[in-house]
Design a protein that fits this description.
Elements (H helix, E strand, L loop, with lengths): L4 H10 L12 H7 L2 H9 L17 E5 L5 E4 L3 E2 L7 E2 L8 E6 L6 E6 L5 E6 L9 E4 L4 E5 L2
This protein binds zinc ion (ZN).
């Protein structure tokens, strides 16, 4: 099943899909596990500079996992070149991998995407991606790790 912008809005307004499991840690525990930049982005809703991320131009086959809890988030087969300077995907790896929140910061209304397992901030999703989903998940490199396929 393909997730569309209508689904994204529905999740952000009416509640997110239930994750397979939950991972919860204190801020100090996360800080001990992550680099300062990973912590700033995933636990403090930061954004890396465009074109700075190691995964931006990565083309290896594999699964992109949450840097905090290792839950698979995106598959390399749905990664695409958006030209924005951040890794971009058209769909999550499973429907319940990602959670969505309406984000009204900086005077804009956007939809924030987070890891549904540990609430790591990943980036935002926009309704200007390629068909058939029409979605563009714009994700910080620092919030993910790729596990390459054999
Ligand atoms: Zn996570």
């Amino acid at each position: 099943m393909i997730i569309t912008w209508k689904d994204v809005i529905h999740f952000s307004v009416s509640g997110n899909p239930v994750p397979d499991k939950r991972v919860e840690k204190t801020e100090n525990e996360w800080a001990a596990l992550l680099t300062p930049e990973q912590f700033r982005i995933t636990r403090k809703k930061g954004t890396e500079a465009p074109h700075s991320g190691a995964l931006c131009s990565a083309h290896d086959a594999g699964k992109y996992e949450c840097i905090c809890c290792s839950t698979p988030l995106f598959d390399s087969t749905i990664k695409f070149e958006s030209g924005t300077g951040w890794p971009s995907f058209t769909q999550p790896i499973t429907q319940n991998a990602i959670k969505y929140f309406k984000d009204s910061s900086f005077g804009m209304v956007r939809v924030e995407v987070l890891c549904n397992t540990c609430d790591a901030h990943l980036g935002h999703v926009f309704p200007d991606g390629p068909e058939p989903s029409g979605l563009r998940y714009c994700i910080n490199s620092e919030s993910m790790n790729i596990t390459k396929s054999e």
